[in-house]
Recover the amino acids of this structure.
């Protein structure tokens, strides 16, 4: 298709005198990929004493497309990474308030009909430093420099509902306590707390959602160890701490399990003694601007592309609006296909005709199809969890 008009003129949005230097796609390509030059993307990583990566933060500002490459997908765990368990040694126990207790090996699990789910996964602690920024208690963080605890992948596995139904549920089957193979003692736990395995108590309604799966593959490959191999729980739409890695045990209970990482850590509240603590589950509705990135301070006059991502834990993104004047006025952004994937983020873009010099504040605001709209103020809580407020990005047009 020609990009020239019938009169031979180049469309305004393609004129080369516009500033394209802020587009990360124009970065120099370095490194080596099977002998060919490539663009290096460098996550922030944390290593153990043996030089092995144990935590990863994703360079979201440099991503293209919807799927985060597996080696860039963030990883977090509260305890030490457990020893490797090969697939032929792995077992999953299903017991408690069920009619038939089961023990499944890896091959038996894969005999259930499979399901593939694409979802954003975000740690509740992602963007936590923005809480101080909104209270004028700290400088504005840079997502470009710090990277984020946020990624998106395609996961393949077995619906948790299929396994639970095989065990047989009853009126007393109200919660699923999912237990991983990583154990330890939280740094903030009371003195004398004994080591325990990481666990979460999932309400049965969410456990039976067809997209809640026992995942054994990510982005077309069997799980890597750091991402929870051989099998992990995947709870789309809820903050990442619910997706228990290295899963070994499913205990079905009538009462909510007393998991330490519920009301001791992942909760909304004003303090540890708040009697009205609320358990953190669903991700907020959120959008971020990735182009220009956080470190761009100056841009030239002309047509500029503003781009980013938007996602929600409760419904598909239905609308994204962009403001260039700090939220005084808003304009609809283009949501790029595919869209209406409930748990996946969308890419959006907006052509801004920056035709005058001056200082501007760029903002993005998302809404989902269940009626939630991204807020101007964060939901403050003493644990600094689930930040999702609109953030302004100041730029100067020269």
């Amino acid at each position: 298709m020609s990009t020239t008009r019938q009169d031979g003129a180049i469309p305004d949005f393609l004129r080369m005198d516009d500033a394209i230097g802020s587009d990360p796609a124009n970065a120099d390509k370095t490194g080596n990929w099977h002998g060919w030059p490539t663009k290096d993307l460098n996550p922030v990583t944390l290593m153990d004493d043996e030089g092995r990566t144990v935590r990863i933060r994703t360079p979201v500002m440099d991503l293209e497309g919807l799927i985060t490459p597996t080696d860039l997908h963030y990883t977090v765990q509260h305890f030490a990474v457990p020893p490797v368990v090969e697939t032929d040694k792995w077992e999953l126990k299903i017991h408690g308030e069920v009619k038939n207790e089961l023990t499944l090996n890896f091959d038996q699990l894969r005999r259930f009909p499979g399901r593939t789910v694409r979802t954003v996964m975000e740690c509740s602690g992602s963007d936590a430093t923005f809480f101080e920024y909104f209270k004028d208690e700290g400088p504005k963080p840079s997502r470009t420099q710090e990277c984020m605890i946020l990624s998106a992948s395609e996961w393949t596995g077995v619906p948790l509902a299929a396994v639970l139904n095989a065990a047989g549920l009853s009126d007393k089957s109200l919660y699923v306590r999912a237990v991983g193979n990583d154990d330890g003692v939280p740094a903030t736990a009371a003195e004398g707390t004994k080591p325990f395995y990481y666990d979460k108590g999932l309400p049965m309604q969410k456990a039976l959602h067809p997209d809640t799966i026992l995942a054994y593959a990510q982005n077309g490959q069997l799980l890597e160890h750091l991402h929870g191999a051989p099998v992990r729980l995947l709870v789309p739409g809820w903050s990442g701490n619910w997706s228990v890695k290295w899963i070994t045990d499913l205990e079905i209970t009538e009462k909510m399990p007393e998991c330490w990482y519920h009301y001791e850590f992942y909760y909304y509240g004003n303090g540890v003694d708040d009697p009205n603590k609320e358990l953190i589950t669903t991700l907020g509705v959120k959008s971020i601007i990735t182009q220009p990135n956080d470190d761009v301070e100056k841009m030239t006059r002309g047509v500029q592309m503003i781009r980013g991502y938007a996602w929600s834990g409760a419904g598909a993104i239905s609308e994204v609006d962009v403001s260039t004047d700090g939220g005084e006025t808003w304009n609809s952004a283009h949501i790029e296909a595919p869209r209406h994937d409930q748990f996946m983020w969308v890419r959006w873009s907006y052509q801004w005709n920056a035709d005058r010099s001056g200082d501007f504040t760029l903002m993005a605001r998302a809404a989902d199809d269940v009626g939630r709209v991204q807020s101007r103020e964060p939901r403050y809580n003493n644990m600094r969890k689930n930040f999702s407020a609109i953030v302004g990005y100041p730029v100067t047009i020269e």
Remarks:
- The longest strand covers residues 358-368.
- Residues 95 and 101 are 5 Å apart (CA to CA).
- The two ends are 34 Å apart (CA to CA).
- Helices lie at 106-109, 130-134, 143-146, 160-167, 204-207, 260-263.
